């Protein structure tokens, strides 16, 4: 992970390049915080009893391969017991998270570079170079991905009970088939959070704080926020919100105009941040497989 320049003293000395330093630092700080929060939330949501049930299921399969029937029966009963504890809860979710990982893919370049890369992808596709286009296209992402593996509570316990019944009857082959099928029903869910939208919000937040005392820097923050929104648009991050990129840009321009004038932009900032909040929430996508 890149080191983030956080010293106020050092930042204040780099006056000659305040746009590249101060605004960029805010953007990187926001990304760092977002990663930590996403990682923390992912860890908190893991249901350990469900994870233990899956691990025991895998152990039962090893027991069967070793022809250790008594151990297999004991382990599958433990697995069923773990899930029974969850089933007894009134608010038990239908999908039980058993593992979660976080990854960040940052396209650290400007809009010009994104446009160039997009054009190159189009040219490669036109030339029939599908695999080369795919590799380049895979670099065109700037997002935090939270991937969670979920156990389906509606079917998994029933599968374990059926497998246990087969084991008691000495039908180890049938029990093994059921357990393998149960493990194949685990669902992978991925939440995609666009990084440029995280950066844009942080920049606008800070611009609001400093607009009165540092008009010049506030305007630079807003200019970079517009650049981040353009990056998000070019990278294809869409939102189901009624707010559009065009509306967000227009709202930023209104704030910029007010700062340059009487500088009474508090209400405009609030309206802009509310629009961006709605846009970001609806641009955060969840997919399952």
Written account of the structure:
This protein is an alpha+beta fold. The chain folds into 3 domains: 8-43 and 195-288, no CATH class; 48-103 and 143-185, Up-down Bundle (Four Helix Bundle (Hemerythrin (Met), subunit A)); 112-138. The chain has 12 helices and 4 strands, in the order H-H-H-H-E-H-H-E-H-H-E-H-H-H-H-E. The protein has helices at 8-13, 18-45, 48-65, 69-87, 111-126, 130-138, 156-168, 172-184, 195-210, 215-234, 245-260, 266-283; strands at residues 95-105, 143-152, 187-194, 285-288. A 4-stranded antiparallel sheet has the order 1-2-3-4. Helix 7 (156-168) packs antiparallel against helix 8. It is elongated. It starts with 7 loop residues before the first helix and ends with a strand. Mean pLDDT is 87; it is low at 1-21.
β-strand amount: 5-15%
Mean pLDDT: 87
Which structural category fits the helices and strands?
Answer: alpha+beta
Strand order of the largest sheet: 1-2-3-4
What radius of gyration results from the CA coordinates? 26 Å
Distance between the termini: 29 Å
Number of strands: 4
How can the largest sheet be summarized? 4 strands, antiparallel
Number of domains: 3
Give start-end ranges of low-pLDDT stretches: 1-21
Number of helix segments? 12
Give the helix proportion (percent range): 55-70%
H and E order: HHHHEHHEHHEHHHHE
Principal-axis shape? elongated
